[in-house]
Fold each of these.
Amino acid sequence: MTNNNMYFIANWKMFGNLKSINSIKNVINLSTKLKYRKAKIIYCPPYTLLDQFVKKTIKTKIDIGAQDCHSHQNYGAFTGSINAKMIKNAGSKFIIIGHSDTRNSGDTNKIINLKIKSSLNEKLKIIFCIGETLKEKRNKKTSQIINKQIKKGLKNIKKINNIIFAYEPVWSIGTGIIPELDDLRNQVKKIKTFIKKTYKVKNPLVLYGGSVNPKNIILLRKISSINGFLIGTASQNSKKF
């Protein structure tokens, strides 16, 4: 997936209710303005709100995505689970896969690979999360870990045109700490270089996520190689988002 859009992806995690849908009205209004023409806004609410978000944004420039799916593509006896087919049927166009929250809940690289394959088969566009822990960072294994996550997550997947990469250092998520700008710039460059060489993609899209807020996003946008942001807590407040 290559284009000149700047992506702003709102990951609502396990927050929100029917009333909170109205809070995105401000964002809808902003998205219609000319200066935001190249801003691609994607909301990823909880499963229970997908249908309502799709209806709310159907005639706007805003797209809707899911936060995860089951690794099994077809229907089956998986209590409490939702597969990519159901997410597609609900009207979603995007899906987050590999977030540290789901990795912490047991998602291995193999499971993530199955989820990506399943989602691609349903023509969903993937937001593939990658990132290192604080321990891995201190041991100078960041690139090693990220490259492994990418290779294992995309095993036997040749075409990655519908995949956006979201670099989220695990140690930054929810901590209020972001990487030093030079370090982040270098890491994004390394990720893009690896993807280009491994998958023969000219211009891979790499977003940044991890404690993004209205204040530090001004600094983060100085890194021209970043193609957008995956935003958690701050995205739930339409005035901040």
Note: The first strand starts at residue 6 and ends at 11.
Amino acid sequence: MEENGALWLTIKDLPEEERPRERLLQHGPAALSAAELLAILLRTGRRGENALQLAHRILQHCEGLSGLGRIPAHELARIPGVGLVKAAQIQAALELGRRVAAAAPEERPLVRSAREAYMLLADMADLEQETLRTILLDTRGRVVAIPTIYVGNVNTTLVRPAEVFREAIRRNAVSMIVAHNHPSGDPEPSPEDVALTRDLIAAGQLLGIRVLDHLIIGRGRYTSLRERGLSFATPSFSQLAPRT
């Protein structure tokens, strides 16, 4: 779009793979920057400035996310391009995030077996593209997060252990379960799946993050490589569960 002889891009002018909302739907919210997430909340920018540019400016004004969390609504609304409606949307999202963070740990699922892990990931059976996710766990075996790591071919030539463990490190997870789907519907692991699993177990040992299992998800069923006899980090699922 051109204004006063200068070109500026709206969100719709960006390539589809660079648009925040499309990136979230494709790769999950964990793959987005703070500015991209904020741009989704804003939805629109103002004349001469798209939502992503406005989001960057808001974060700069607030000196980052911590400042955004502290700024009063009326002050946020005075930032050019924000206004009362956008300020209310941002503050509502921030408060919701606080309430989620404050939720009792007992509200987070406890994973004590491959079957329980599969139940958290059963929707992957319907995905048309091969997708890799991880279930991140705390010291008691409760779920910290389930980020999507890759969408596309999941094999040893494309999957980088650094990417798989990035969210686990960021969220201070102590163990993880890796899972990916086979769009064919057949959960039988390939030699590449086994090779990838061994690479991830080795990387986890170096990083101090235990890889407890790798699930291959098919249509209505799954395969656990731990149950198939592959050597995984200890403790087992049962050893992670809290004592009663």
Note: The chain is about 40% helix and 15% strand.
Amino acid sequence: MYTRILKPPHRKSFFLFGPRGTGKTTWLKTQFPQALYFDLLNAEVYNDLLARPHRLAQMIPETWQDWVVLDEVQRVPELLHEVHRLIESRHLYFALTGSSARKLKRGEVNLLAGRALTSFMYPLTAEELGRDFKLSHALRFGHLPLTFQEHDPKRYLESYVTTYLREEVQQEGLTRNLGAFSRFLEVASFSQAQLLNISTVARECAVHRKVAESFFSILEDLLIAARVPVFTKKAKRRMVMHSKLFFFDAGIYRALRPRGPLDTPEDIDGAALETLIFQEVRAINHYYQFGYEIFFWRTANGQEVDLVLYGPRGIIGIEIKRSARITDEMFKGLNVFMKDYPM
């Protein structure tokens, strides 16, 4: 088990969001070993609290003063009413985890505004892995914790994609057309670390553009993918308007991405490396509260910087290349960017 960088807030209730399998539950049990724990993936607990959310108060002893953990709280959003009341009336501290923000977006989270902080758990970072970090493993299998424990990490990732992604979508009733969604996942994987053209994805999936847009929203709500916007602040050149797409982990991207005889290692490994850097930057930025917003920069004529960090500490441009040799040509986009934004 690896020591995570993320630290819990001091005596303050909080939400902990993150994709399934990133280690939220393990982290909580390490940080709060004495907490009263309710696992909403447990059918008995789920059914009981779904039918009678008010029973939560009865299940917490009157004299209880330690933490209360609600794992996968998005499964019963109505519990947040009760959590809100218990924070106010009994001054309890709650840790609320979620692997989906979709149901909680429907106004329920606002009940806890100001009473619960929000934090995120991401795949393991190179810093957390220490000597166990290996670039070859990261590019093939990513950094989900179980890929370092499973005998066959490739099969685990394939199971994650087929069992979790597709079944979670089906169970949550996020779309009725599971076949189209499965095709969409494969097509979307070709957009990894690339400009996202939703119309093109829709056409290749044989669905309407609005359907493809809704599928992308599902991925974002499940915290499986993120869209990175183009950096346009005080732009001096004509910029592209499309966002970039990133699945949250290089291993998940590799598991989704079909591979055929015309694919070269550079096609897949290049996107995997850019994904790895993106997930590392996003995690470190959050854990250490650096406060950067994450963008990329690309002009209409193709000059590009892979990632741009913009925040109170300044502007950072990051160029990502997978090559045995470094040449001046690789920094062409970065040099143009630095002329527009001297750092």
Note: The two ends are 39 Å apart (CA to CA).
Amino acid sequence: MVNEKRLIENFMELVRIDSISRKEGKLADFLIEKLEDLGLEVKVDQAGEKIKSNSGNIIARLKGSVKNATPIMFSAHMDTVVPGKNIKPICDGEKIVSEGKTILGADDKAAIAALLEVLHIIRGKNILHGDIEIVFSICEEIGLQGAKNLDISSLNAQMGFVLDAGGQVGKIITTAPSQNSLQIIIYGKSAHAGSNPEEGINAIQVAGFVLSRMKLGRIDEETTTNIGIISGGKATNIVPDKVKLEGEIRSRNEEKLERYTEQLKKIAEDTAQEFKAKAEVKINREYYCYNLSADDQVVKIAMKAAKDIGLQPELHPSGGGSDANIFNKKGFPSVDLAIGMEKVHTVDEYILVKNLKNTAEYVLSIINTVTSGEN
């Protein structure tokens, strides 16, 4: 039923449209036209104005042909990470890659392509279905900001399926972590590095001691920490008086998240004081964890739909967040589903054609499962 040629062509066209975070406008215009041509009612919200993107979230609705079916939502994000400009996809018939200088953008345009293919099939084959809503979000890659600014009460759906996990189709993310972002500013004292360095307090050196005392990387099976950005200093002949460290703490356990966050804060403050410097620590909650089980209806549907097309459903925890974190926090039950993308956020990113096709078939199967009421 899936038209593989059309699916690949649509995917290749999508990834050629630049849409790095906050610059999703061109892709949004393309998708609005596509969705309207397929008979959907399309709206764009005001999220973009709030987070300085040139587009808002797209909310599209396809009225059901079956009255009593549970209304559902599918979601994918329009933005990509960098390097994501002038992507040139290459398909050898089995695998799709970029030319090697950019990401591919399967994260998350493979999901968008699959959803467009499903909408083509529904229209062309008169597939029975309930009400379907499609959310194409903005700025997912920079803190799930599009989903955070989506008015969830504007949706009629009762549950959501987010298509944004790596790994083989059939993998179902039932639990994902909370995340705190961490910013540490070390204030030292400037001085001439050659004439009177004794009068200075080297903020970069203090930061080095701070980092050496932190346990970074994987803390345990559900907790990770990372310092990913360091900036500071003005010139080689000036003792630096300020350095900024930026990082994150993630955990699927709230108590551990708060405990390790406080540990990193205390290390920074105590170490700075030891060197007669000062540490200013800012902590921000980026998103909250969600925990679903095989007993939740949205998971039951995802599992049955996978089995019905010969896929082996597997329930997995994740170390990353997605729009599903935001939707669940807002009281809208949602699960994140794998779409077969691999090595995302790198120039080696790729997706197999069979996984692109499996994703479209999986979405169709979810719709059939919900429409039939067999869940």
Note: The chain has two domains: 4-176+289-372, 180-287.
